[in-house]
Amino acid sequence: xxxxxxxxxxxxxxxxxxxxxxxxxxxxxxxxxxxxxxxxxxxxxxxxxxxxxxxxxxxxxxxxxxxxxxxxxxxxxxxxxxxxxxxxxxxxxxxxxxxxxxxxxxxxxx
Length: 110
What we know:
Structural class: mainly alpha
């Protein structure tokens, strides 16, 4: 069996390996070790993908984000992110990659 951190790294790699105009990530650093976090930060800074992400680690946000939006969307955060993904896909007519931290995606690797 793989650790939660290993599963999350696979999801991040899978997301970034698929070309998209916009990547939407929900708490990408959950379960990620320090070395992997540094690698992810460097990759994002080098590649500079267009991203919308939710992350509570202010150090990561300060290093990666170019703009910050604070939302209070209540309890249904994952459904709000899925709804945003759907709306952006329809509006832009372009591919949007969604990386969720939910158990459904992580269980695919068990």
